[in-house]
């Protein structure tokens, strides 16, 4: 496979993560390229994120969070 310098792609992915209709206040967005490479971004208190240096082509996107329920 040809070497791709993801630092130079300039591609980014941004948006807002919601859970049950409300912005997710704590979490991480994970982007994993189908051909390798990837990056992550923390979600801010408004649910917004921006993943930079996204590898070109198809990718898997996931959200990691630890939801803590009040007892």
Strand order of the largest sheet: 5-4-7
| First-to-last CA distance | 51 Å
Largest sheet: 3 strands, antiparallel
Number of strands: 7
Percent strand:
35-45%
Can you put this structure into words, describing what you see?
This protein is an all-beta fold and 71 residues long. Helices cover 0% and strands 44% of the residues. The protein contains no helices and seven strands. It has strands at residues 12-16, 18-19, 22-23, 28-33, 38-42, 48-52, 59-64. A three-stranded antiparallel sheet has the order 5-4-7, with no helix packed on it. Strands 1-6 form a two-stranded antiparallel ribbon. A two-stranded antiparallel sheet has the order 2-3. The chain is elongated, with a radius of gyration of 14 Å. The termini are far apart. The mean pLDDT is 82.
Topology:
Blueprint: E1 12-16, E2 18-19, E3 22-23, E4 28-33, E5 38-42, E6 48-52, E7 59-64
Antiparallel strand pairs: 1-6, 2-3, 4-5, 4-7
Outline:
The protein has strands at 12-16, 18-19, 22-23, 28-33, 38-42, 48-52, 59-64. The chain is mainly beta.
Structural features:
single chain, 71 residues, mainly beta, 3-stranded antiparallel β-sheet, two-stranded antiparallel ribbon, 0% helix
């Amino acid at each position: 496979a040809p070497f791709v310098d993801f630092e130079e792609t300039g591609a980014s992915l941004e948006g807002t993560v919601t859970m049950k209709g409300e912005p997710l206040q704590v979490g991480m967005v994970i982007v994993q390229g189908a051909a390798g490479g990837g990056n992550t971004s923390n979600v801010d208190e408004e649910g917004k994120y921006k993943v930079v240096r996204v590898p070109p082509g198809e990718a898997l996107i996931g959200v990691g969070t630890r939801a803590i329920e009040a007892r």
